[in-house]
Amino acid sequence: MIKQNLPYFENIHTFIFDFDGIFTNNKVIISSEGEEFVICDRGDGLAFNLIRKFMRNKNWDLNMFILSKEKNKVVESRARKLKINCYKGIDNKKDFITKYLVKNFGNSNSAAKGIIYFGNDINDYYAMKLSGFSVAPIDSHPLILDNADLIIPNKGGEGFIRAFIEKFLKENGANLLELI
Q: Is the pTM here over 0.90, yes or no?
């Protein structure tokens, strides 16, 4: 379900992704030694390749990063694999984004409109409200579903990011086959 049209790529400067419930199915496997394991969708990795090629083709400067409350190093490992930045252990995502905007865009009140935020749970609520456009997987918390600008029919960790990126690219005139 979409509540407003997807923004045109040239109006977007940042994609911000929560981790658990976005890259994962929000579940964790814990070994007897206490080591945590999560499952991510490899299709999401190809989506990052597609968007990077689109960025090069359009000479589009897009910043992408993970912003997670989770402190586990698995978040950082996935970000490294995807070649995106990672900020973990962040308790107040709205404050983090506000500082990010001031650092990178000065005191521009409109800079937040250039963010697409991907979240699924109530700790994403204020970050989503601050951002210009918000996206949630179908299995998100009801408060998030009520407030997201776009709900992708995929569950978190089940190709959710891939589904969004393909939709975003197509609506911005990309031919996916030319991006592989």
A: yes
